[in-house]
Amino acid sequence: MLPELQRNLMRGEAIADADALQIIPADAESQLPAYLQMHQLAREEVVSMLCPPFVVSAPDAMETAREQARQRGVRYRTLVMPELLQWPGWHEAVRQVRAAGEEVRVHAALPFKMVLADQRAGLIPLRLEDPTGPALRLGPTAALEALWQLFESLWAQAVPALGAEPADEEPGAQDPVDKDLHALVTLLAAGTNDKQIAGILGISERTLLRRIHALSTQLNARSRFQCGWLAARHFSAPD
User: Fold this and answer.
1) What is the pTM assigned to this prediction?
2) Order of strands, edge to edge, in the sheet holding 103-106?
3) What is the block-wise mean pLDDT of the chain (239 residues), using blocks of 10 residues?
4) Which residues neighbour 212 within 8 Å (Cβ) at sequence distance 6 or greater?
5) Would you call 137 exposed, middle or buried from its count of C-beta atoms within 10 A (0-12, 13-18, 19+)?
6) Are 100 and 70 in contact (CB under 8 A)?
């Protein structure tokens, strides 16, 4: 998929007009309008892959743009890296976006961050080795189609993000132990390795192995893979 995308970017015939390809400077002041435009352009769906580090940090402006898009009936699907599970406010953020009707899944191997609006536009890093550098804005090109196919492939492999409180509970009402369990289940099902999981949960690998063993026993799982699969089915609500 990535080599195909690279070839499409290099092909002159893939660029239909001057708006089909644009480089956005690395500074947040330049990139924020480009990100906001993704939400403003969308009429059907916005899909994203979230991978730290981030350049743009304007939560109020971003949420306003998202809310306006949701009111137009725009669907939101977001893939996140497991590392985001350790960020403060993760569970509350997931609860809020789910309450708004958005869908969030976790994938352990996202290749880069991006946001796509319908078949109209997309934003990805210009250079994979410099995720906080300039961004590449794509219009309706063969490369944009390839990015949609990539997202759909990763979405099918990902698991629902767990850990959000049920809608009828007050934010913060969930026991911290339950949040850790939900995070563990999500990470196992996403295929995250033990070292990453232990770091995200802030525990030792020995403690992690004990928790996995206890969860496997509870679910009568015969392998780690089966444990993650059964746990995701047991604890997740349908998207």
Assistant:
1) 0.69
2) 21-24, 135-138, 121-125, 114-117, 45-50, 75-80, 103-106, 159-160
3) 52 49 87 90 93 73 90 93 74 79 86 91 90 89 93 88 46 50 76 80 85 84 74 59
4) 184, 188, 224, 227
5) buried
6) yes
